[in-house]
From TrEMBL:
GO BP terms: calcium-independent cell-matrix adhesion
Lineage: superkingdom: Eukaryota
Subunit field text: Forms monomers and multimers.
Name of protein: von Willebrand factor A domain-containing protein 2
Stretches assigned to the EGF-like domain: 280-317, 699-734
Location (main, coarse): secreted
Record-annotated VWFA domain positions: 36-207, 327-503, 518-692
GO molecular function: calcium ion binding; identical protein binding
Key words, A-Z: Disulfide bond, EGF-like domain, Repeat, Secreted, Signal
Organism: Nipponia nippon (Crested ibis)
Compartment(s) where it occurs, according to its Swiss-Prot or TrEMBL record: Secreted
PROSITE patterns, per database record: EGF_2, EGF_3, VWFA
Amino acid sequence: PTVLLVLGIQEIHADQEMIGKISAAGQLMQCSASLDVLFLLDGSYSIGRGSFERSKLFAGKLCDALDIHPDRVRVGMIQFSSTPHLEFPLDSYLTKQEVKERIKRIVFRGGSTETGRALKYILRKGFPGGRNSSVPEVLIMISDGKSQGSTAMPAMQVKERHITVFAVGIKFPRWEELHVLASEPTEQHVLFAGDANDAANGLYSTLTGSVCSATTPGCKVESHPCERRTLETVKELAGNYVCWKGSKQPNAVRASLCPFYRWKRILIKHPSRCFRTVCPDPCDSQPCQNGGTCIPEGLDKYHCLCPVGYGGDIHCAPKLSPECSVDLLFLMDSSAGVTLEGFLRYKAFLKRFLQAVMGQDSPMNVGVAQYDNDVRIPIEVGQHKDAFSLMKTIDALNFSGGGTLTGRALQYIAQHGFRSTPVFAEVQDDRPRVVVLLTDSKSQDPVAEAAKYARDRDLFLIGVGSSFVRAELTKVTGNPKQTIVYSDPQDLFNRIPELQRRICTVDDPEGCQAQSLDLAFAVDASAGVGLENFLRLRDFVRSSFLHFSINRDVTQIALVVYGSKAHTVFALDTHTSNSALLQAIDQVPFMGDSASTGSALLHVYGDVMTVQKGARPGVNKAVVVLTNGGGVEDAAAPAQQLRDNGILVFVVVIGDAQRETLLRVAGSPSYLVHISSYEDLQHYQDLIIERICEEAKSPVNLCKPNPCMNQGICILGPGSYRCECHGWEGPHCESS
């Protein structure tokens, strides 16, 4: 209850957004001027040790709003109770850090609240260590305003000396006394320490009008109605009750009615106005598109949290590249098997997807077909050129129910789905034709033959469905990579980026087929990963091989497994075909001891990525580390050594792990992929391969890593290199 009371001591009547802006500005404002500031800290028993510590904390926060420097703002502090005590003069500490550290060391003194005596001390001594009124003087009193004795006369005399007085309430302040202490206009000079950011803003807003330099462009001081409250104890008549009184007669008492009182704590309200600086929020212009959430960072920066399917730029533009020119037909299951709820979910998915991909001048032609026992094409491919009219038509689609004849639907679409593109036109349209099958129920007719018929007519088939129909979707697409499976209804919407990628890469060669690359996988085979998860990692590596064309001229792959020590399963030049690699990976040993990723990376550097072991000068090099995050503490330095020698380090971590440590290993967030579980590993394969392939296109330094053996020195020439050998011979200093 006390905490709630403290929060209710001062209330600015403004909406939550405005309160947020006031607080944000309070954290960022800095008063920069020649100014002497003296804090007068109430250290009496009525404040108590706890509130005194909060006063110190508050004073430290206010220092953040002051540009403390010998030539600009100087700060001193006096603690007062029965007598004033100089904690430090204004010329003692001349940097913000020094002042804040000294404030932390101040000790609570205790005693009565002699505010008047503290003010007389200032009248007598001035600002200790100050610049003798040659610069403006500001006195900031932090007190509960419960003084013993009158404060009106010394307060008036202090203000007559042209000292600006701020009265800051702490705990449950007596606001009437603080108003007497503060400079005029009092509403601009009375603050509450319970909200440091608000008080810093109030202090800055008042000083801006007199001594501080002008506010940030666009910022302005605004007046808001506010209310302050005082917690007072009052005597209240509880009623008249029977009591017994003595009598003049000996040995006699008489009954009477006596008033009974009780003490009650009440909040007394003090309406006022609060003057605060507000700045234009960088999010006011609503820069985030497509439902993105704008998060301000200071007064002029922001970032957008983008929904799934967006993030093509900082403002949540669609992620899909505008160069993705395809004819796209969604074939949507409308049978009883998917139910009305499933059908409505597919419609919502379609709309979300189209919002993400169709800009104003989208080169993509989209159509929608639905099927059960029969097939209908309510939206022909290319019928609508803008997303809005397309989505209105999708809204009008009705659920039909009926049987699930997927095979028949595929056959029909192969013959009639893309009629708008003439087959015998003089100029043949070479845009890829993509069919996305959306289904959640097994077909009641055979699908394999119909799907092959469609694929033979150059239709690219992509299947989207629940794990229940995974096997059937793979029969339809003919390739597990073209099958997108979701685990629950919400997960369907998370698959939008993956579907975008599939549609836009149907006509591209897989992986880095056209790029030369020396690639090493370093797989954690420690007890921390465990045998079952290790086999999952092995399967992930095996399926990754399918993305690359393995031969001496294009991609070479090495595999290292590690526990406390690293073991090369095969070197870069061991296998020269995909089939040989796939056979060899079955022989991978599980180590089962502790993990040392650093040892593995040192092994890759010294024993894998070398000319002796098949590494090719002038070819991009990358290491993919697959780990659960255990044993990576020793890996940062070896990883940096690899990067210094032109070898990319890509870290894939599964499960909970220290992100900071892993970032040091990866060197950049772009090369760190964090996956929550081993089951999700397969969903990230395309992303990882894409990143590696992007890197394979970057320019290569022929001397990194050093191709010269036996301490030979690599010397770069125009488009070539040579080795300078010492006591050795051969192009790479390989023979003695």
